Amino acid sequence: MGRRARTAAATRRVLDPLQDFLHSEAVGGLVLAATAIAALIWANSPIAESYDTFWNGELTLGAGSVAITEDLRHWVNDGLMAVFFFVVGLEIKRELVTGELRDPKSAALPVVAAVGGVALPALIFLVITWGTPAAVGWGIPMATDIAFAVGVLALLDGRVPAGAKLLLLTVAIVDDIIAITVIAVAYTATLSIGWLAAAVGGLVLVVGLRAAGVTAIWPFVPIGIFMWVATLESGVHATVAGVALGLLTPARPVKGRALLEQLEHRLHPFSAFVVIPLFALANAGVALGTDTLRAAADSRLAWAVAVGLVAGKVFGITGAAMLALRLRFGALPDGVGMRQLWGVAALGGIGFTVSVFIADLAYADAALTETAKIGIIAGSLVAGLFGAAILLASCGRARPEADG
C-alpha cells in the first residue's frame, strides 16, 4: 500500500465515525423534536391529567434491601439517561484521542469559544435571578444540545460548510464536559463516602480488567450496573457513572478490536432513538395555558434562561472565539468565516436535553422547574431559528464541494 493510500485509509478511520455520528445525531434531533412536541400536546390536551399520573407512577426493581423504587420519570432521568451520558463519555474520549481535541492547536479555539459560551450564559442567569431562590439554577443555560443543533444543520444540508458542523460539534462536546462537571459538583446535595468509595472501586476494577487485556464487553456490564447503583446511593447523580465508564473505554483498538467504535455503533442508535425521545416525552410536557405563559413572561427565571441561551451563547461563543483569533490562539476551521461563526454560536443556544436535566436537579419546587422549562423551550426555539437564519444568509446557495 502506497503512502497516499495509507493516508486516505487513516483519514477515513477518523472521518467515517464522525460522519456516522453526525448523521445519527441529525435524525435523532428530528425524532427528539417530534417527541418534545408530542409531550407538549399530551400535557395540554383534554387528557392532560394522565401525563403526570403516568410519569409519576412508581416502579420498583430488585427485592428486599437491594430494591430501588422510583417514579417512571426518574427511572428515565436517573437510569436510562446513564446510557446517554455513557455515549457522551465515548464521544468525548474519541475526540480527545483521535478527533479534533487531540491536537491542542486545532482544539484551542473551540475550547476557548466553548468556555465563553458557558461562562457568559451562567453570568447572565445569575445577574437576572440574583437574590431569588431561582439563582441556584445557574447551570441551566450552559450546555448545548448536540442532537437538536445538528438536527437544525441537517435541515440546512448542502448550505453549511463542513467546518461549521465540525466547529459546532467540538464546541458542544466541550460544553458537555463542563456541564457534566457542574452536575457532579454543584448539584450534589448530600454525599455518602462509603457508596462513593464503592463506585470508585468499580472504576478501579474496570481499569484492572483493561490492564489484563480483557476485550469482551460482557464482564463490564455487571460492573457498570454496580457502579450505577453505588453512584446513585452516594448522592452524586448516577449518570456521572456512565460518563466515567465511557472515558475509561479505550479509543484505540485492543488486540485488533475497536471497542469504542463497537460500543458507540451499538448504543448510539438506542440513545438517540429511545433514551432521548423518552426523556423528552417524560420532561417536556409543560402546561402552556394563558395563566402559565403570563406568569412565565413575568418571571425572572424564565427570562434568565431564555436570555442566557440566546444572548449568552451568541456573544459568549463569538466573543471568546474573536479574542482567541486576535491573540492568534487557534484558527477557525476551513470554510468558516465570521458570519458562520455567529450562526454556529446561535445554534449553541439550543440547550434542551441537558438544560432540562439540570433544571430537574436544581429545583425541588415543581413550579420553578416548569418555569425553567418554558424558558428553555422559548430560548432554544429562538436560538435555533436565529442560527438557521444567519447560516442561510451567510452560506448562500448549496455548495456540495464544501461538505466533502
List its salient traits:
two-stranded antiparallel ribbon, 404 residues, Na+/H+ antiporter like fold, mainly alpha, 2 strands
Detailed description of the structure:
Strands 1-2 form a two-stranded antiparallel ribbon. Helices cover 72% and strands 2% of the residues. The protein is built from 15 helices and 2 strands. The longest helix is centred in the first third of the chain and has 41 residues, at 3-43. It is globular, with a radius of gyration of 21 Å. The protein is mainly α and 404 residues long. It has one domain (18-187, 237-403): Na+/H+ antiporter like fold (Up-down Bundle), CATH 1.20.1530.10. The chain has helices at residues 3-43, 48-55, 72-97, 104-129, 146-155, 162-186, 193-211, 220-234, 239-248, 259-283, 290-297, 300-326, 338-347, 352-362, 366-395; strands at 58-61, 68-71.
Work out the radius of gyration.
Answer: 21 Å
Strand content: under 5%
Number of helices: 15
Mean pLDDT: 85
CATH topology, anyone?
Na+/H+ antiporter like fold
Tell me the helix content.
over 70%
Strands of the largest sheet, in order across it? Answer: 1-2
Structural class: mainly alpha
CATH-defined architecture? Up-down Bundle
**CA-to-CA gap between the ends?**
24 Å
List the helices and strands and how they pair.
Layout: H1 3-43, H2 48-55, E1 58-61, E2 68-71, H3 72-97, H4 104-129, H5 146-155, H6 162-186, H7 193-211, H8 220-234, H9 239-248, H10 259-283, H11 290-297, H12 300-326, H13 338-347, H14 352-362, H15 366-395
Antiparallel strand pairs: 1-2
Concise overview:
By secondary structure, this protein is mainly alpha-helical. It has one domain (18-187, 237-403): Na+/H+ antiporter like domain (Na+/H+ antiporter like fold, Up-down Bundle).
